[in-house]
Specification:
Chain A has helices at residues 4-21, 61-70, 116-128, 162-166, 229-237, 249-256, 286-294, 298-305, 334-343, 364-377, 389-397, 415-423, 435-446, 450-466; strands spanning 39-44, 75-78, 81-84, 87-94, 97-102, 140-147, 150-155, 192-198, 202-207, 220-225, 243-245, 261-276, 310-312, 350-357, 380-387, 403-409, 470-483, 486-487, 503-504. Chain A is α+β, with helices and mostly antiparallel strands. Chain A has 2 domains: 26-224 and 485-504, D-Maltodextrin-Binding Protein, domain 2, CATH 3.40.190.10; 270-477, Dipeptide-binding Protein, domain 3, CATH 3.10.105. In chain A, helix 12 runs antiparallel to helix 13 (435-446) and helix 12 packs across helix 14 (450-466). The radius of gyration of chain A is 26 Å and the shape is globular. The relative contact order of chain A is 0.14. Chain B is built from 13 helices and no strands. Classes of the chains: A alpha+beta (505), B mainly alpha (307). At the A-B interface, helix 1, helix 5 and helix 11 of A face helix 2, helix 3, helix 5, helix 7 and helix 10 of B. Chain A: Pfam families: SBP_bac_5. Chain A: This is Peptide/nickel transport system substrate-binding protein. Chain A: One of its GO terms (molecular function) is peptide transmembrane transporter activity. Chain A: Keywords: Signal, Transport.
Amino acid sequence: MRPPTTRIGALALAGVLGLTACSFGTDDRAGSGGDGATTLRVANPTPVVSLNPFAANSADQPTLTVVQEVFETLVVRDDGRIAPKLAESWTNPDPLTWQFVLRSDVTFADGTPMTSADAKASLQALIDGKGPLAGLWATVDEIRTPDERTLTIHTKSQLGTVLSNLTLLWIAPAAKVADSAFFDAPYGTGPFKVSSFTAGQAVSLVRNEKYRGEQPTLAGISYRYIPEVSGRVTALANNEIDVTWGLPPDQLTGLRGNGDLTVTSFPTYANYYIWFNSSRKPFTDARVRQAMWHAVDFAKISKSLFDQAGAPATGPLPAAIFGSASQNPYAYDPAKARQLLTEAGYPNGFSTTMMWSSGCCTNGNSFADAMISDWAKVGIVVKPQELERATWLDKLLKLDWDSTMTTGSTVTGDADFTLARLYLSTAKRNGYANPELDRILLAARAELDQDKRAALYAQAGKIVWDDAVGIFPLDLNGNVVLRKGVEGFTPTPNDLPDFAGVSLR
Amino acid sequence: MLRYALRRLAISVLVLFGAATVVFFAMRAVSGDPATAVLGPDADQAAVEALRREYGLDAPLPIQYVQFLRRAVTLDFGESFRLHDAATNLVFTHLSATAALALTAFVIALVLGFALGTLAATRPHGVVDRVVSVLSMLTQSLPTFWVGIMLILVFSRFLHLLPSSGAASPAAMIMPAVTLALPLLSVVLRLVRSGLLDVLHEDYVVTARAKGLSETRVVGWHAMRNMLIPVVTVAGLEFGSLLGGAVIVETVFAWPGVGRLMTDAIAARDYSVVQACVITVAVIFIVINLIVDLLYVRLDPRVRESV
């Protein structure tokens, strides 16, 4: 006889399996606009933890990616050149004064007109917010608003980077800039406004009906954070999202063959670099640093690890940046590396360490392994140290390291942002101190003639490169993967994907 | 009984105090400054100092500790450095997602575990029993993150049945809940199977059958009651480990729960959120242990008498 308990068990089993097999299909893209417009579903690779463009997150890629759809700036960088946006024109009445004439037809999403008072309050908020961009404005001593359409910025010393800096000054309503609750669902003068925001998880944008320009064809944009790369790739292949970016190269290879997807790669303002602590032996000697560079076959490594993910660097800054210039390449030459080591007093090489923060860099661990094995061939034993980001940061700022690998982006697209921030001797970021370099960088910052400024950065770049403050192997490409049907997307080198002009078929 | 409950309560308070102390000092023993982690390498030193003052991180450690304990009593864990919200709020908003996930996983594990365990025990060494043993060994030994990714591949990528991540629809719950349930499922299953097998040979079961009771009543009532005690203990304790497993499952499936909140907070040295999360999880652990102990008293007359 069949025991009846078998039936109880079988019934319960069938019940649970039946429940599990049910699939509840949901469609979360139905748009709010009556014109059949739809919402673009975006998965960002890093979490958006704040929408406040004036405080601690003002230089964060995830924050800026959303902020750029909501707020606008006085000027923008368009194909490398500065172009007007909320400001119509500008002049320098004297070398310490910048005067901007603002457009008169701009309103915020709540209908109030944008005036010079809003621009002044926004700049003041950025300076008072003491975030990573506040330093760009350290020499500002007075902001005036002679009338509703005129903004005057007065500096203590000449500041040639004002226009570049303004490309990251987002204009928010003066009455709201100090109100932290406003940034839970902020609005500005841009094509979209925030309808909901859960820090670290999701942001939803809807059209700003008061936008002065052409209305976007999208009803809105919904961003959500999917931490795992495999999760993002699956969501994309599965039509749960329309677009994502920042995928590692090994994933891209598979996606290029998928007929439903379009993979776009493009040059960015970001690059890879390996710094040496120039205040610590043996890296106090430039010959040792140069030997490290000659010892590694970067052409071979980048071919195998970074197929379409980057291009060999030609200088310490990626070519798309204002003020970048081509420098003399370092050849792969182990014999020369050994000779330089001998001249520096290390004929048998030496032992040292290289740290990086885990997840910092595309293919970082493989890249480190490859360099370390090349260094070993000339007698340099490099111990790898992969650290958690907070720990890495702590050691980095205390200069408690021998060498470090990282990637960085010049968010303003202006050489000053990276060169003056990292290589002035007062910055104390890598132990390198060179009065000549300091002089050039400060002169460049004070130069109002943009062509002369670019020439000065070319000189500064040559010193950083030839003195091998670090190794600059690779300029990084960005990538954006879109589902077929997402049209009108144009990548920008700041690697902040902008979807305002996108439409969905 | 009352004295027993009171004694258990007093021990619970001590355990909670211990957990609070350990998490407070452990977070501070790890290198990495929260203000620097928030502001990044480019913030100027004055801004970092200002933020440290704002969050009370400039005070001597013992004073911070006393302050932390005093405020924790009123469920005030301070503000998140990273997400700019009260840590208590953040934990509560994320807790419901984790609770839903853990409870669903718990129910799946119990129902399937009992069903499969009973099936296996009633026909020992039969086909069902063999298949179930192999499955239980696999589900116990396969790492959770791997199982999660495999489920995503099969059910989302190839079969297009279930959403791969997020918490937008009820269907999104299925894969994370199953992934989380599997290790517990195999434990319950094996306990039920071996417990039933032991009990089914006892004299009282023979007596029950001899009385002419139906097999359903013999197994489902007489036998089941006696093997429930070890299952309740283990299931209760393992509910706690479900919360631990949630940390991994929530990351794989982008599930917006406490586990993910906590991992992100640890990486960002967001002390207040880590402390709030750990203490909340500790409270849940303690409450479950209490419930398990009290359930014992209900289930086992011998324990009832001794307390």
